[in-house]
């Protein structure tokens, strides 16, 4: 593309009243920037040149203005607005304080915009016309986000803790009064959750309707709430009832929605009729729909990927006989170590695809345990002869924990396979895509249950002759980095190197310093706060086991990280130094998001691969195939610390 505009980060958002205009997020010189897309001419214009990039953008219903959230490395910022045709940006709404982004919604009928802002430990909701002064509608403690503004500005929907007593709240923008709320729990003692997905846009005079996903009795159901009537659903057993996680959006006029279902590391799209309770599967290639949106002409724009193929746009035509098509040529593989969105997508059971590593093999592994089967994606280097296996192995541990590794391109996998490693991505208990029981049912044994799964997969691979004892390591970002540090202390005989980026190193300290949204996640994981269940936090904390860590460890972190604050990492590093544990530290810029300091993270990733290579290729074979009783004598005691400048 001309002007240095590169591949898509997210799908486009369209002006609902002018389908000729859209806004995109695309890579420009390695950073995500906002791009205006004129569909009439096909021209794209770069809007932002933010030094840390911009992840979130929107377009006004009439297409006149573009919005983006301008955040500092710690995630604090405000919405800016610029003309679609070009010009200087200004605050999108006057009178709104800086804070964390807590959602945005437009109403095409009234022209109003609603934004949520996190200030300290409270959520505030503002309403106004673009470029004008906004007024405070309501505020409440904790984390909640704006998810919808009903036609005519009659109701404002906000979403908080999905399993809480008021997962969704409905406010009157005129008075700021709470009109109704939707509980997450079903009220039958069997748990449950609720997610709000936006108001039906074509209702201008009738009672507002809000699209919902409900978790009930171990299933996910597509439903809707209607003012004055409450929740309406077809109930268990209908085609709108799913066994694994879904998300959805309204599609065209009437009670029709598009549904994305994630299942066992892959996804599919369906068209759902909420009146009839029926669904139709849309034809899409096997792989992962990373993101999707609906254009005013009812075409569906997706960001799609699969093993060896970097994410690329895909357009579907649900109302015609046409199949899906790719509007752009394949992107060049990213060799920087940045992996799609947030570094969480993975590989699948298929031969090498364009962009993959020539001759490498991909497979899936299901490891049987009494509580279920653990699903892993495995990639191995070229070569099948006895002289090529077993291989030194790196487990790329996903974060979340409520996300999953997928059948999608991952630059880290390609880099490690090229370097001669087998690469494993495991969807441990807590992962999505396998139903509520797999996601939640591990008895608040946070971290420890996940390590049991990783150890079981490691043993399976050693028995299968894929991995070599004494040469297996862990690499993770965010919560995956947390599991890496925890494993190096809880299971020091199993893992020969740990590579952790932006980890939780001291869970109690991180809880007290992190964002309100993440504290609510931890409350659900642990079943309470550190004050309420201190024994659970202590059992799950890497600091508890730091005295058992042998190393070597490579840690990369940011001094601006609001989600996994640096102070708790520094405390962990001090404990390593006191015990002369071999480790290396690299401090980065850009906060928690790896995309905000691409050069720093690319350099850190290259250093981590070298570190793993030096460590795992130096590790001796051991007699015990399962425990790989490492002596540690081959690792020189050292500590180095580096800082990169963004």
Compact overview of the structure:
With 646 residues, the chain is of the alpha+beta class. The longest helix is centred in the C-terminal third of the chain and has 21 residues, at 598-618.
Structural descriptors:
globular, alpha+beta, 9 helices, eight-stranded antiparallel β-sheet, 646 residues, 38 strands, 37% strand, Rossmann fold, nine-stranded mixed β-sheet
CATH class type of one domain: Alpha Beta
**Helix content percent band:** 10-25%
Total strand segments:
38
CATH topology tier name of one domain: Rossmann fold
Sheet with most strands: 9 strands, mixed
pLDDT averaged over residues:
87
Low-confidence stretches: 336-355, 620-637
Termini separation comes to 26 Å
Structural class: alpha+beta
Sum up the overall morphology in one term.
globular
Number of helices: 9
Beta-strand residue percentage? 35-45%
Q: Which architecture name of one domain does CATH use?
A: 3-Layer(aba) Sandwich
Q: Superfamily at the CATH H level of one domain?
A: Alpha/Beta hydrolase fold, catalytic domain
| Sheet with most strands: strand arrangement | 30-31-33-32-34-35-36-37-38
Mind telling me the C-alpha Rg? 24 Å
Keywords: Hydrolase
GO biological process, one term: proteolysis
InterPro entries: AB_hydrolase_fold, Peptidase_S9_cat
GO molecular function, one term: serine-type endopeptidase activity
Detail the topology: elements first, then pairings.
Layout: E1 5-8, E2 13-15, E3 18-28, E4 31-38, E5 43-46, E6 57-59, E7 65-71, E8 76-83, E9 90-91, E10 99-106, E11 113-119, E12 122-128, E13 135-141, E14 145-149, E15 156-159, E16 168-171, E17 178-182, E18 193-199, E19 209-216, E20 219-226, E21 230-232, E22 241-242, E23 246-250, E24 256-263, E25 266-273, E26 278-281, E27 288-294, E28 300-306, E29 309-316, E30 361-369, E31 372-380, E32 391-397, H1 411-418, E33 422-427, H2 436-440, H3 448-463, E34 467-477, H4 479-490, E35 497-501, H5 507-513, H6 516-526, H7 534-539, E36 553-558, H8 566-578, E37 583-588, H9 598-618, E38 639-643
């Amino acid at each position: 593309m001309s002007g240095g505009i590169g591949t898509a980060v997210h799908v486009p958002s369209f002006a609902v009243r002018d389908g000729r205009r859209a806004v995109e997020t695309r890579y420009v010189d390695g950073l995500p920037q906002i791009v205006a897309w004129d569909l009439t001419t096909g021209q794209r214009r770069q809007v932002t040149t933010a030094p840390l990039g911009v992840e979130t953008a929107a377009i006004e219903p009439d297409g006149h203005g573009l919005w983006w959230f301008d955040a500092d490395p710690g995630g604090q910022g405000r919405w800016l607005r610029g003309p679609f045709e070009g010009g200087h940006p200004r605050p999108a709404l006057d009178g709104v304080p800086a804070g964390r982004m807590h959602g945005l919604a437009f109403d095409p009928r009234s022209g109003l915009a609603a934004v949520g802002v996190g200030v300290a430990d409270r959520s505030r909701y503002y309403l106004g016309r673009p470029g004008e002064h906004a007024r405070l509608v309501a505020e409440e403690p904790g984390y909640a986000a704006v998810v919808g503004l009903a036609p005519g500005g009659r109701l404002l929907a906000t979403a908080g803790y999905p399993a809480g007593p008021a997962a969704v709240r409905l406010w009157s923008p005129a008075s700021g009064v709470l009109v109704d709320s939707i509980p997450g729990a079903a009220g039958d003692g069997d748990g449950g959750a609720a997610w709000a997905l936006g108001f039906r846009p074509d209702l201008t005079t009738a009672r507002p309707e809000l699209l919902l996903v409900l978790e009930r009795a171990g299933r996910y159901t597509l439903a809707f709430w209607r003012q004055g009537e409450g929740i309406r659903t077809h109930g268990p057993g209908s085609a709108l009832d799913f066994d694994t996680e879904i998300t959805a959006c309204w599609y065209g006029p009437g009670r029709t929605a598009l549904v994305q279902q994630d299942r066992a590391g892959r996804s599919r799209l369906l068209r759902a009729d909420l009146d009839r309770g029926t669904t139709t599967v849309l034809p899409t290639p096997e792989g992962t729909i990373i993101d999707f949106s609906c254009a005013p002409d009812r075409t569906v724009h997706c960001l799609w990927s699969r093993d060896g193929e970097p994410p690329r746009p895909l357009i579907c035509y649900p109302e015609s006989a046409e199949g899906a098509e790719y509007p752009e040529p394949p992107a060049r593989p990213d060799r920087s170590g940045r992996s799609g969105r947030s570094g969480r997508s993975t590989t699948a059971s298929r031969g090498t695809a364009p962009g993959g590593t020539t001759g490498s093999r991909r497979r899936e592994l299901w490891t049987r345990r009494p509580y279920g089967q653990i699903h892993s994606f495995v990639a191995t280097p070229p070569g099948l002869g006895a002289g090529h296996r077993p291989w030194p192995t790196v487990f790329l541990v996903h974060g979340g924990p409520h996300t999953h590794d997928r059948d999608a391109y991952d630059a880290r996998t390609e880099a490690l396979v090229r370097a001669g490693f087998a690469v494993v991505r495991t969807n441990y208990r807590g992962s999505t895509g396998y139903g509520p029981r797999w996601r939640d049912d591990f008895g608040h044994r946070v971290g420890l249950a996940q390590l049991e799964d990783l150890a079981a997969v490691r043993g399976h691979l050693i028995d299968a002759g894929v991995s070599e004892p004494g040469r297996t390591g862990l690499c993770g970002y965010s919560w995956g980095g947390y599991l890496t540090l925890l494993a190096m202390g809880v299971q020091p005989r199993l893992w020969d190197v740990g590579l952790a980026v932006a980890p939780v190193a001291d869970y109690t300290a991180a809880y007290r310093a992190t964002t309100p949204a993440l504290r609510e996640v931890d409350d659900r994981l642990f079943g309470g706060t550190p004050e309420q269940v201190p024994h659970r936090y202590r059992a799950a904390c890497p600091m508890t086991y730091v005295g058992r860590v042998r190393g070597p460890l490579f840690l990369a972190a940011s001094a601006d990280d609001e989600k996994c604050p640096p102070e708790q990492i520094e405390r962990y590093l001090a404990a390593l130094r006191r015990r002369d544990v071999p480790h290396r530290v690299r401090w980065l810029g850009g906060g928690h998001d790896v995309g905000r300091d691409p050069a720093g993270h690319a350099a850190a990733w290259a250093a981590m691969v070298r570190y793993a290579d030096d460590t795992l290729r130096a590790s001796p074979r051991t007699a015990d195939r399962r425990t790989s009783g490492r002596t540690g004598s081959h690792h020189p005691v050292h500590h180095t610390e580096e800082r990169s400048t963004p």
